[in-house]
Amino acid sequence: KLILDTLDSQSTIKDTRELTIPGESSPATSHESQITILGALNSLLSRDMITYETHEIFSYALTAEGSQIAKEGSHEARVWSALPLKGQGKPVTPVELKKQVGDETAKVGQGRAFKNGWIAKEADGLVKVADTIKDATKLELSEIESTGDLKAGEKVLADLRKRKLVVQRKGQWFTVHKGISFSTSTAKPETDLTADMLTSGAWKTSPFKKYNFDAEGIPPSGGALHPLLKVREEIRTIFLEMGFAEMPTASFVESAFWCFDSLFVPQQHPARELQDTFYISDPPASLTPPKAYYERVSTVHEKGGYGSTGHRAPWSDEESKKLLLRTHTTASSAQMLYKLAARCRGEDIDDDSNEFTHGARPTTSHGDADMEDDGFRPAKLFSIDRVFRNETMDATHLAEFHQVEGVVADRGLTLADLIGFMRVFFKKMGLEQVRFKPAYNPYTEPSLEIFAFHPYLQKWVEIGNSGMFRPEMLEPMGFPKDVRVHGWGIGLERPTMIRYGMTNIRALLGHKVSIENVENSPAVMF
Ligand code: PHE
């Protein structure tokens, strides 16, 4: 208020040391007063009500020893006063002097008093030879104590600092100007957008406090890194060291087209039913997928093609455009593979802009460098993110969990490449005992279920699913016939449970996790 009112009448404040803080008797010259003013300036600055410039000054303050000297006199003066004037009394022996003024003062003071010509030796003791003295050190220190400075100048100050009687203090003062939102009103701007402001419309006109991006924030009162995050980071590191690039997986909501149709999952497949998938009712339909691709996908479903008979069941646009919570991250992989095949479809793609492919030169499984460039570039991609399934929850199932997914695209890959790759990968994860079992999966053929031995449950548990993506999925995207893509997906939760010796998934994730326990534990424990 003081700053705003002063600005209102004077338009600038040249020197904030001239302000007098309400309730104080003298102007704000002290360091502490300027700190108080600075707090107010920053708060006004954040509301654009003022601008200010900072000026630095140095001031001087006494140390504990310095204050004692300012009060009681210098060591040499104290020595001098303890002695009788020459010829007027019994000289004081060094031992007696120590007793009277103390060891330190006697030691330091004697030398200086001699040097100043204040005292002399007589017989086996000491006497005064000057009948009056000027205690310069005391006078200098008193001046510094009251004004923060010394008229005698730098050299004397430097000497006093060397003697550890004085310290230098950096001080600040400020010049203040009106800001673009200057007003004399001290009404505080809003710090929160509330539901009331939204309903009343007050948010349109309310002044809001600017974000302070330098604020340190409130330190958390407890908590520790969650095991899922730790294992996720480990898995991500393994992928990265094996040369994989991470896919974007930000969209939890996908269309049935990308989640199922593009993968050649029949529209009548049970996985797509309400009891397995969470559908979204609003908005009612997805955006339209790329037109030509959409046609090829619907045709391969309904009538077949690329050597396949198709599903021979009627195709529904409505079914394809349904929105849902993605049931697997393969919905993202499908979109990345479609993007990877862009050049094979003859679309103009800038090599450098496609960060997911490996190298600009075409490769073949036979190292045939002369082969014509059909646009294909091999790729190794991975993702780790959340998926949703309408499951009955029990000790090993949740409706919301994380999938780890890896996809490799190259010419002439085989099932042996897939198995070999997974063995290396799981070994790096510490899962030495893994087994693969033939399985059915609508978008891969052949398909393999992945099992790992759970040391606590003492049995084999299914951890994932893998396979070679079907030509009915890859060829409509535009991949050449010799390009093979293998993929696998595992849950993040089960390997984490095996790692941490847990038997109940509900202790790891979901509404049954004890928040109190997490907050109070220095480390996550189960
Ligand atoms: N999407 C499969 C699942 O949800 C995992 C998978 C990914 C299988 C890629 C094959 C290829 O279990």
UniProtKB/TrEMBL annotation:
Domain Aminoacyl-transfer RNA synthetases class-II family profile: 378-522
GO molecular function: phenylalanine-tRNA ligase activity
Region (Disordered): 351-373
PROSITE patterns in the record: AA_TRNA_LIGASE_II
Protein keywords: Aminoacyl-tRNA synthetase, ATP-binding, Ligase, Nucleotide-binding, Protein biosynthesis
Record-linked InterPro entries: aa-tRNA-synth_II, aa-tRNA-synth_II/BPL/LPL, Phenylalanyl-tRNA_Synthase, PheRS_DBD3
Top class in the EC scheme: ligase
Entry EC no(s): 6.1.1.20
Keyword Aminoacyl-tRNA synthetase in record: yes
Keyword ATP-binding: yes
Taxonomy, superkingdom: Eukaryota
Pfam family, one: PheRS_DBD3
Matches recorded under NCBIfam families: PRK04172.1
PANTHER family according to UniProt: PHENYLALANINE--TRNA LIGASE ALPHA SUBUNIT (PTHR11538:SF40), PHENYLALANYL-TRNA SYNTHETASE (PTHR11538)
Protein name: phenylalanine--tRNA ligase
Organism the protein comes from: Marasmius tenuissimus
Record gene name: FRS2
